[in-house]
Structures are given as C-alpha cells and as structure tokens.
Amino acid sequence: MAARRITASTVNWASLAERVPANQKASFANFKSKSDSYLRAVMANPENPPKIDWAFYKKLVTPAMVDTFQQKYEALKVPYPADNVSASIDAQAKETKSEVDSFVKSSKDRISGYESEISHIKGLLPYEQMTLEDYRDAFPEKALDPINRPTFWPHTPEDQVGYKSKDAPVDH
Fold this sequence. Notes:
By secondary structure, this protein is mainly alpha-helical. The protein has helices at about 15-20, 25-45, 55-60, 65-75, 85-120, 130-140.
C-alpha cells in the first residue's frame, strides 16, 4: 500500500556503487544509509491518514465545535508538488545519450585507426635492426631527406631557416 507512493524513484544501488570511485566509497555508504533511513521512515507511515471517528468526538465535545473541525479537516487538501522537471530531464537525457553515442562512434573510429597503426608498426623491422634507409621507407614524412628537404643541425623545425613561430606577431 505505502510502496505505491515511491516506486517511481527507486534507485539501483548496485549499479550506482560500481560507478563510485574508491576514494568516495565512504561518502556513498553514508548517503545510501541516509536514503534507506528516509525510505524506512516513509514506509512506516500509512499511505492515507487514519480515519477520524467524528461521532465519538461529538459525544464528548460540543457537537457544533466538532462539526466545524470536521468541515475544516475535510476541506484541507495538502498539495502534492507538480512535476515541472521530468520533461527537461528526459530531454537532457536524450541529448546526453546522443552526445555519448557520437563520442563512442568517434572513439571506435580512433581505435580502429590506432589498431591499423599498431599493425603497421608491428610489421616493421625492430628499431634496433632498422637502418636510416629502412626508417625513411617506413616513415617518409618524418625521415631526414638531405636532397629534397635539407635541414640544419639539430634538425628541429624551430632551428630551420624561414621558421615562423605560431606565437610570433604577423608582419604587415
């Protein structure tokens, strides 16, 4: 009977506990115990208040006063809060799900690219056995090419003639 009031807000504590970092387990356990004590307190009370025996009170107290109390008691309606946020939460959940799906897709694309890179590197000679010519054949864009792209020692982009820093102001 009382469970009908709160079944929509049940929490899957086991799946939530799996996502809690190790350094926050104590706080999570404290939060769960407070939630459980609140749940026990709510479930201890009946769903509806007990019925008042107005006839019994009319025998003991002035009937006119009991009638006034009865009218006021029956007119009293405690409003249940309106649900103003569920729609926005559902919309946010859909938006977040689409963001997560796109992230997963892009991550899978990156993973497949990395796996192909790994298979390419595994197919190469070990670096200990590789000569400069082997390195040039495997990585033509990174290898030194003194004929077509001559560089000066120490062969870093910053030390080459014509290098312009990204942070340097543009000359007009």
